[in-house]
Amino acid sequence: MSKFPDLPGIKNLDANPYEPELASFDDMDADADAGDGDAVAKTGTTTIGITTDDGVVIATDMRASLGGRFVSNKSVQKVEQIHPSAALTLVGSVGGAQSFIRTLRSESDLYEVRRGEPMSISALATLAGNFARGGPFFAINPILGGVDEEGSHVYSIDPAGGVMEDDYTVTGSGMQVAHGKLEDRYHDDLSMEEAEELAVEAVYAATERDTGSGNGVYVATVTGDGVDITGYDDFEGAR
Asked: Does residue 45 have an active-site annotation?
């Protein structure tokens, strides 16, 4: 038992004052939860990537929030081109995701200048996973979609650097609702137009139940010819 009464903010009065105090990961997590977490802009988000024989479709909502309770921005572009024929979504902490996109785009551009050709999508996905695992990027979970000589690719990049390829994938707080729509309607021979319609419908379904997603949709179509990104303030205009 301590020889001194409990004082706020002092954890151990019996400890040697000349030795460093070591905190546990539990203490760090608790401090983060009690600190400025609610003041950090987060995208909440529903982001979707779908492959087709002709390319990739990526769709995202447009909402950013503070702590998931206050809408801080209604027109966030959550998908950006990072490669001549690839795009990446913005998911998680806005600052971390924006920094991640800038870093990956710079490395992709540098590779193309040095080698005289674009990086393959699989190599780009591996690089993204390495950056997520070893870099200072906070709480990100993006989707990478691209087209190269090997075909159409969609990867999810988890916060620990895991890289998983699939025919379609969803990340963000609305993923459970959106996954249900995709599981019901996805099939192997979707056209690009059908994939766009399905991606928009899945984002819309998520916004109906997920408070972190809403305010419209961005749709990116990725082909061997490049990346086209269009924003819609309402879902009717995107259909």
From this structure: yes
